[in-house]
Amino acid sequence: MTIRYPNGKKYIPAQQLESGKRSNPSFSNRGKTLEDELNDTNEYYLSNNIAVIHKKPVPIQVVHVKYPARSAAVITEAYFRSPSTTDYNGVWNGKYIDFEAKETKNRTSFPLQNIHEHQVEHMRKVSEQNGIAFLLVKFTVLDRYFIVPYEYFEKKWERMIEGGRKSITLSEIEEMSIEISAGYNPRLDYLSALEKLQNTIKTN
Question: What InterPro entries would the database entry show (predicted)?
Fold first, then answer.
C-alpha cells in the first residue's frame, strides 16, 4: 500500500531509510524493531499499573481501494491527513509523557534529519506545559538505547538551525542522556531511566 504525506510526498518507513544489517542482536530481540520493543514495554507498564502509554494513531485518508474478491478490500493508496506529532504519549505518576522514538544505523552520530520541525515544535509546547518530552534513540548497530530530554536536544537543534552540524555525536548523546539497558520484561524500562534523569535534573 502506498501512503503519502499531505504534500503528496511518498511515505517511507524509518526502517527503510537506512540500509544495513544489525550486528550481534540478542536472540530474544532478533527481528524486532524499536516500535515492537516499545509496544511490548508499554503493554507491560499497562498490565502492571505502572503507566498508560500508547502509540498515537495516525489519521489516514484512503484514496484508492481494490476489491480482489467480494468479501475483501485492499487499500492501495492513502494519504496522511495531517503531519504527525510524536510517536507515543500517555500518563505516568500523574505526569504527561510525550516522546518520539527513532532508530539509526549510524555508529557515531544521530542525524537530525530524522526529526521534523513540527515534531520539535510539538515537544517544545509539551515542555512549556510542564509535560515530559524526550527522544528515545536506538543505535541499532551498537544495540544501545538513550533517553534524550527535550531541553538538551533543543540546544543541538538550534545549533543546526544556526548553521552548525546536522547531527548529534554519540559522545554528546552519552553526555546529555540516560542510557537504557535492554532487558527481558519489560524490554526497555525507559520509565525507570526517566525517573533517574528527572532526579538528576532536580539536583543540578
Answer: Resolv_RecU, Restrct_endonuc-II-like, tRNA_endonuc-like_dom_sf
Residue 128 labelled as part of a binding site:
no
Q: Helix, strand, coil: what percent of the chain each, to 5? A: 35, 30, 35
| Orientation of helix 34-47 relative to helix 190-203, angle to 10° | 80
159-196 pLDDT tens trace: 999 999 999 999 999 999 999 998 888 999 999 999 88
Predicted pLDDT at 201: 62
**129 labelled ligand-binding:** no
Q: What is the pLDDT of residue 22?
A: 39
- pTM of the predicted model as reported, rounded to 2 decimal places: 0.73
Burial of 64 from C-beta contacts in 10 A (0-12 / 13-18 / 19+): exposed
| 198 has binding-site annotation | no
pLDDT of residue 89: 94
Peptide bond just before 149 cis, omega within 30 deg: no
Residue 135: enclosing H or E segment and its boundaries?
strand 132-139
Q: Are 45 and 58 in contact (CB under 8 A)?
A: no
